Amino acid sequence: xxxxxxxxxxxxxxxxxxxxxxxxxxxxxxxxxxxxxxxxxxxxxxxxxxxxxxxxxxxxxxxxxxxxxxxxxxxxxxxxxxxxxxxxxxxxxxxxxxxxxxxxxxxxxxxxxxxxxxxxxxxxxxxxxxxxxxxxxxxxxxxxxxxxxxxxxxxxxxxxxxxxxxxxxxxxxxxxxxxxxxxxxxxxxxxxxxxxxxxxxxxxxxxxxxxxxxxxxxxxxxxxxxxxxxxxxxxxxxxxxxxxxxxxxxxxxxxxxxxxxxxxxxxxxxxxxxxxxxxxxxxxxxxxxxxxxxxxxxxxxxxxxxxxxxxxxxxxxxxxxxxxxxxxxxxxxxxxxxxxxxxxxxxxxxxxxxxxxxxxxxxxxxxxxxxxxxxxxxxxxxxxxxxxxxxxxxxxxxxxxxxxxxxxxxxxxxxxxxxxxxxxxxxxxxxxxxxx
Length: 436
Prior knowledge:
single chain, 436 residues, mainly beta, Methylamine Dehydrogenase, Chain H, five-stranded antiparallel β-sheet, 43% strand
């Protein structure tokens, strides 16, 4: 499995392969995406399930976060799925989700194991146990949020339409359940999710072009940068630096320690999504409808694939994308030429997966399908976690004796031992899982 590094593949254009053939999906209810259609895209079905949706209820959005696939609907239902096992962990009704867009969900890890799922509505941050969906707390907001939430300790960080970044303390024993620790002007609305890293540094950027690193405890500025245009998509932390997508068709790489600009990659069109680095490829989707693949070492555009709606997953030798309309396309990772094009007319939503090589498709009446590259075998939870760390250059957790024992069987996390249940006690928040 490839190592997920910040591969900047920006949507560029590679001429479609005339030899690639379109395969219609099955019309049967039992096989809404046919085995033959998946095989044509070099995929095998890993699992399928159907969510219990009401009449006229439709899937409105989805997001992959770590080991979870979140799906929310037009009636305000939020489902938390174990995306490796194809199980519904829980479902919760969030009334605001039926009327307004959600920010997130994001994950906030807890010191004693397990994690919380943070969902930002137009007036609240709702905290749920990630493994059983039980409500952990609600943080009422006195501002209109414009980003998802990051967390460190028991503090949540998010942007507001008031051109400020807010640090809100979650305190279940306090009157009202929370209080604001601090707020700071950000030079514009913060739409990119802030990044918070231990032991306590926050990075945020605004649509006014201001980018800041500060102490998470007291908002003391460590360094700042001014970009020529707004930052409206998430920043991406990587071992090489902090990748930031500008509104001027550029990708910037900053040194997170001092804010020094280490690299600027110029592209033919403005990007609409954060870059994704996998090994020595950098992928990005642009407003011209093309996926670009860039060499992050030389800034050279390796290939451009026009007619791309979404980047679905990066595999060892191919890239899965959503083409025009409801078309699943497999693109050669080395030169951007189409390997296969499959019509999947019964797919309503293609899920962007920035974590690994799995492809997720959502259909009518709550149907969900997960597919993996042909020949890929079943992976244990520990293998999945280890592969994700290697793909993103994230070190494995250290055991108490200093050894690299985070994935040892005898020290497996509670989530690996029992992915469907969680502690009844709710320890304080510890850290935000870095965005992929």
